[in-house]
């Protein structure tokens, strides 16, 4: 893939939210949200449905006005950027195309607004694999083709910052793989990639960094690795033919455990220690290994906690 | 310049623009011819006082104005309907510049459409009247050229009012309802209001005033042509200004 930045010497700007707040009537949709998105990485913007992700992205793109606070691109509001179309590209709703307009003309509209021509339209069509469908009306497109057209639109200005709202939503496995590797490649070129999702599973293979929100509030902001380290509870699964003997040995060593399936789930020690206890007691093991809480579980627990906290506070 | 090009691509690349433009011309000409044809049986002596062959040739504007108004409205409501407005405003965050470009391109398309509608309606009806031995108007006759300019301007301004209404309502059906009210219902019904209020509507309602500008023989109680066009222009500018404020201040 050759979508190199026009000028690789200048690093693309990051995205910065500061106490970003949006009220609709008496409802707070985004609540004093602060986070930073760095260039050269794929940042997953994660939250359950209705968490305020789309509203945040719309404020980033200048479509919705914050009630308080700000969200900026390289420190500037999008309307103050000298060349917005070449600085930031966005995919908000892949279906937001006129059904009677051809894909080529749809792209040409935005290319011309950015001071670009037909050549660039052909390039991005090629980039997303829609060259043959360019003259077809967008109304005939499948969801996957819509997503590709949306990505092509976002890439027209060769922007350093890409904002993608639920880009994996509704894609088939092949489409997901394509979108994922595209995002990874774009980030590897140094661009700032911010994509939202309500599914933790979509983050695991795609994101470098995570910004997790729930009910408009920040729940976590870290690298994916750090997030896993901090939030997933570790445990050791162990089993033995003489399970009762193993349980007694762990009890004597004052190691916490519980019975789980055909073995024991140990939370108070690592594999080395459990192995040592078993060896000292001469107990043969038939299974010993680390297990981790799934990220999906962590996500549900974290967003659930915030919900609980809020209802207690209310 | 880039934005004008972009807005022109938006307009030209969907069928609805061309359907609306052709419908304006076709409806204008067909209804003008139809309106003039019941005069054909009348003898020259049977024509009403103040017979104005120019105004009589533009009767089809009654419906054509609604179609060209929708052409203006659709230029913006189609973007709201499809959600494309989000992409437009991300690419061009300056809403003022976007609206200015849209207004310019719609005005240009409407001007061409309005000119075609005016000239074709006028020519067709004059041929018809001449064939029936009735008095006709020629572009060289006093006041006729001015009336035709005013008629073209009328349709162009109505398209801009449509654009403003589309921006304010953000909905095609909403725009249609508003335009039917503004262009057809109010001018038809309001003059029947009692006393000075009815007279004021009959005289100063912007589209009624604009229509007075494309008569050659002055109608009783109507504004002078220059004033009529001026009033409609002010109304169109005010509508676009209101649309501008709304576009700038509202969330998308």
TrEMBL record, chain A:
Q: Show the GO MF annotations.
A: ATP binding
Q: Which residues cross the membrane?
A: none
Keywords assigned by UniProt?
ATP-binding, Nucleotide-binding, Transport
Q: Where is the signal peptide?
A: none
InterPro entries annotated for this entry? Answer: AAA+_ATPase (IPR003593), ABC_transporter-like_ATP-bd (IPR003439), P-loop_NTPase (IPR027417)
Q: Which residues form the ABC transporter domain?
A: 15-240
User: Which family does the record claim for this protein?
Assistant: Belongs to the ABC transporter superfamily.
Q: Which PANTHER family match?
A: ABC TRANSPORTER, ATP-BINDING PROTEIN
**Name of the protein this chain belongs to:** ABC transporter ATP-binding protein
Query: Which organism was this protein described from?
Result: Pseudonocardia xinjiangensis
Automatic annotation (TrEMBL), chain B:
Tell me the keywords, alphabetical order.
Membrane, Transmembrane, Transmembrane helix
Looking at the UniProt entry, the stretches that span the membrane are: 58-78, 99-124, 144-164, 176-197, 227-247
> For this UniProt entry, which residues form the secretion signal?
none
Superkingdom of the source species? Bacteria
Membrane: present as a keyword of the record?
yes
> Does the record's keyword annotation contain Transmembrane?
yes
Recorded protein name is ABC transporter permease subunit
Its source organism is: Pseudonocardia xinjiangensis
């Amino acid at each position: 893939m050759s979508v190199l930045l026009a000028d690789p010497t200048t690093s693309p700007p990051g995205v910065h939210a500061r106490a970003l707040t949006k009220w609709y009537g008496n409802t707070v949709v985004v609540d004093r949200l602060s986070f930073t998105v760095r260039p050269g990485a794929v940042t997953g913007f994660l939250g359950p449905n209705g968490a305020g992700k789309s509203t945040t992205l719309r404020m980033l793109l200048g479509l919705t006005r914050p009630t308080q606070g700000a969200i900026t691109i390289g420190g500037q509001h999008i309307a103050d950027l000298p060349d917005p179309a070449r600085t930031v590209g966005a995919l908000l709703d892949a279906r937001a195309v006129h059904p009677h307009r051809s894909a080529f003309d749809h792209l040409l509209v935005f290319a011309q607004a950015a001071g670009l021509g037909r050549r660039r339209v052909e390039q991005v069509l090629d980039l997303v694999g829609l060259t043959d469908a360019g003259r077809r009306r967008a109304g005939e497109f499948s969801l996957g083709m819509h997503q590709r057209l949306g990505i092509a639109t976002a890439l027209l200005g060769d922007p350093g910052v890409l904002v993608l709202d639920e880009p994996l939503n509704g894609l088939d496995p092949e489409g997901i793989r394509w979108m994922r590797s595209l995002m990874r490649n774009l980030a590897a070129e140094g661009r700032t990639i911010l994509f939202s999702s309500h599914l933790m599973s979509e983050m695991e293979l795609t994101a470098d960094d995570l910004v997790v929100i729930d009910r408009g509030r920040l729940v976590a902001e870290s690298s994916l690795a750090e997030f896993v380290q901090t939030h997933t509870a570790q445990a050791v699964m162990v089993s033995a033919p003489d399970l009762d003997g193993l349980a007694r040995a762990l009890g004597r060593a004052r190691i916490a455990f519980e019975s789980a399936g055909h073995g024991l789930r140990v939370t108070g020690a690592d594999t080395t220690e459990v192995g040592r206890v078993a060896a000292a007691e001469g107990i043969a093991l038939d299974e010993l290994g680390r297990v981790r809480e799934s990220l999906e579980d962590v996500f549900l627990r974290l967003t659930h906690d915030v919900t609980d906290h809020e209802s207690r506070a209310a | 310049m880039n934005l004008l090009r972009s807005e022109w691509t938006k307009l030209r690349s969907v069928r609805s623009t061309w359907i609306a433009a052709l419908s304006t011309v076709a409806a204008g000409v067909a209804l003008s011819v139809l309106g003039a044809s019941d005069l054909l049986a009348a003898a020259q002596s049977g024509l009403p006082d103040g017979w104005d062959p120019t105004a009589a040739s533009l009767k089809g504007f009654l419906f054509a104005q609604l179609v060209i108004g929708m052409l203006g409205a659709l230029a913006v409501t189609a973007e709201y309907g499809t959600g494309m407005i989000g992409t437009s405003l991300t690419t061009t965050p300056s809403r003022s510049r976007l609206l200015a470009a849209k207004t310019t391109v719609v005005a240009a398309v409407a001007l061409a459409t309005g000119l075609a509608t005016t000239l074709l309606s006028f020519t067709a009806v004059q041929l018809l009247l001449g064939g029936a031995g009735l008095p006709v108007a020629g572009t060289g006759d006093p006041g006729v050229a001015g009336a035709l300019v005013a008629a073209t301007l009328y349709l162009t301004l109505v398209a801009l009012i449509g654009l403003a209404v589309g921006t304010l309502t953000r909905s095609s059906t909403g725009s249609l309802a508003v335009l039917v009210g503004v262009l057809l219902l109010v001018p038809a019904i309001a003059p029947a209001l009692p006393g000075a209020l009815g007279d004021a509507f009959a005289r100063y309602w912007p589209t009624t005033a604009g229509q007075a500008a494309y008569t050659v023989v002055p109608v009783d109680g109507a504004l002078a042509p220059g004033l009529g066009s001026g009033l409609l222009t002010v109304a169109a500018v005010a509508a676009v200004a209101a649309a501008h404020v709304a576009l700038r201040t509202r969330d998308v």
